[in-house]
Amino acid sequence: MQVSQRIGGILGGGSDGWDVFNRARDMIGDGVAVTELTIGEHDIRTAAPILQDMHRAAMAGHTGYAAVPGTNALRDTVAKRVQDRTGVKTTRDNVLITPGGQSALYAAHMVTCDAGDTALYLDPFYATYPGTIRGVSCTPRRIATRAEDAFQPRAADIAAAAEGAKSLLINSPNNPTGVVYSRATLEGIAQVCTDHDLWLISDEVYDTQVWEGEHISPRALPGMAERALVVGSMSKSHAMTGSRCGWIIGPEDVIGDLINLATHTTYGVPGFIQDASVYALEQGTAFEEEIADPFRRRRAIAQRVLAGQNTVSLVPSQGAMYLMLDLRSTGMSGEEFANALLDAHQIATMPGESFGEAAAGHLRVAMTIEDDAFEAALKTLCAFAQTCAQG
């Protein structure tokens, strides 16, 4: 017996990009002390008051089936948050609560694309993007961004790839590059979507982690509210990665269709997690800034360390919990360097190639260990890069 082509083809016949990460985890399993700068997992855990509220809700009996679209309380809270931040009128009818951002990405493609359609995404990309598109039986079409543009997408490149496509997936603040798309970039993207009748799927899970510039949701641009689906999550903004609570914001009729999809797939999110998410969101921006502050600090540490050498270059670090380092001066690919660094110094990073061809010769570093250890690891990485460049 064989599995379906849809499932068997999710990876497109290639690697899932996690080879170095998996090798590092195997080393850890063998008792080797590895410094992990790989995945976007906070080094702090969900704040105790959030967990206490989750416990209160569970003990109060909110452990049965919750409303499939999400509880009214959470949908209202998310809608208010979005409206306050974007100025776009948003009600609970524009909100579907999902089991995390990844579920929302899948659902967004399900509702915008039919089997066999072409769906666009930008390179570099978060590792699951092409697999998500294949998983809904669509054809992924990548659009390369350029290191010389600081990985800001060019509208002309998107337009050149848009013929026959149904959707475009973007992510700002961006994982893996740490780049925040400028207003000019987003206006160009919006124009292409309008000209080519594309759905825009905007992954905004890092919207609270902006170090330079401003986060602009393309849904707020003229004419975009009716063709944009925005993905959000509690994972990054509130250190609630394991709680799996996210959302999609979109036109009311599309949300209605997505509720039908949720009824036949996830059947909603546990009520006690939704209650705790309401509590967390009600703590306001001060709490979100507290969660983001370690990454802001570590970005400053990285800028200081990298300023003291000339082998490793930092892609403009404007947002998210990652740094993208340019290692092309070493003459090595990102994968070669990441493997060599892991072997020589037991420091695990993610090769740029894990996130697409456009990031070849780069390295993604997650700022997810305590400050002193992070600084020491970066200094070791830079010294190792200098040795490789000279060798």
Automatic annotation (TrEMBL):
It is an enzyme of class 2 (transferase). GO terms for molecular function: L-aspartate:2-oxoglutarate aminotransferase activity; pyridoxal phosphate binding. InterPro entries: Aminotransferase_I/II_large (IPR004839), AspAT/PAT-like (IPR050596), PyrdxlP-dep_Trfase (IPR015424), PyrdxlP-dep_Trfase_major (IPR015421), PyrdxlP-dep_Trfase_small (IPR015422). Residues 41-380 form the Aminotransferase class I/classII large domain. Transmembrane segments: none annotated. Its cofactor is pyridoxal 5'-phosphate. It holds the Pfam family Aminotran_1_2. GO terms for biological process: amino acid metabolic process. Its EC number is 2.6.1.1. It comes from the Bacteria. Keywords: Aminotransferase, Pyridoxal phosphate, Transferase. It catalyses: L-aspartate + 2-oxoglutarate = oxaloacetate + L-glutamate. The keyword Hydrolase does not apply. PANTHER family: ASPARTATE AMINOTRANSFERASE. Belongs to the class-I pyridoxal-phosphate-dependent aminotransferase family. This is aspartate transaminase. The lineage of its organism: Bacteria, Pseudomonadati, Pseudomonadota, Alphaproteobacteria, Rhodobacterales.
